[in-house]
Amino acid sequence: MHNSFIHFALPDIDNLEFEQIKEALLSGWITTGPKTRKFETEFASMVNAKHAIAVNSCTAAMHLALEAISLKEGDEVITSPYTFAATSEVIRYFDAKPVFVDVDSDSLNIRPDLIEQAITKRTKAIMPVHIAGLPADMDVIRKVAKSYKLAIIEDAAHAFPSKYKDKMIGEACYNPNSPNIVCFSFYATKTLTTGEGGMICTQDDDLAERSRVMALHGISKDAWKRYTAEGSWYYEIVSPGYKYNMTDIAAGMGLAQLAKAERMWLRRKEIAERYNMGFEEIPQLQIPFDRNDCQHAWHLYMLRLNLDRLRIDRARFIDELKRRNIGSSVHFIPLHTHPYYMKQYGYKADDFPTAYREYTREISLPIYSKMTDQDVNCVIDSVKGIARQNQR
Questions:
Q1: 247: which DSSP letter?
Q2: Which of 97, 124, 190, 348 is catalytic?
Q3: Cα-flanking dihedrals φ and ψ of residue 163, to 5°?
Q4: What are 216-244's pLDDT values in tens digits?
């Protein structure tokens, strides 16, 4: 047993964040201002995006993305049931319908080969989720989207810094007939955190302009400049927008996190490799799938239990980890099994059998850059010990 509790997730924060936040506070710009613009510029450069718009959550980013493509009541968006609540609920904000497609049993990403049969005359967009930081199969998804002139809104909440083949997730493709927007999360547990926050990335000038305007009340001018020496008091509301802007306090934290993003990713990658080496020969365990042609962000380490080889279930396995002072989690409870979606659309658990089956045996282990080697060894030894003690 570890002497102290190993948290499931902890942010990697040091003096860089404190200095950036202090600068923001002392400058007087504590809401959207120059640090937010600098964060947008540096993030865009890192992911090779033409435009980056900082907002206060990934939920806000996805909501704005769907608004920018003019999603309306009665439209449909194809997405995965194996994701967090936000992916689907932003579709419901428009009284549009989320159309779920089952996932691949290896990657847990949406199955591209099932997307086309889910398309109807009401389909407006495809929303793939890059789960755990492993990119979805974007070549196939883009081909389908292009054929049917559908937008692609990428839920990249887990996917910084991920690469699909030779391109960063965030380097969205430009196609006027198939708009592409990528949405990131900077929530407290994410690979880059601003406490709460998100980013919209696109190559499309019109989509970027619409998202920026709608992120701050639909005001046509760059509103934060109103209180600078070169600003003007005059502004126009072009559409009823939202209050989704990021603050300079959060952006300062983001700038500090960007400066050490590579180091944090390399450490998570190292931990994932050590986990894989520790677990790959244990028949009660299945290590996460990876692709040689992609860069995994390793936001999550999603271990799966071979329950037919164990005398205990997933809940008991988690309890045994907790008893050994190790935090863990489950990603995700499939959306179609939640009461709202079952009542709204009549879904049953086995409507998307792969998503449901894999959920019942998944455990997410701690994987963050502040973990010590001792922490990592303790997790490996504990997981292996529980598996061996409870083998069939």
A1: P
A2: 190
A3: -125, 135
A4: 999 986 665 666 666 677 888 999 999 99
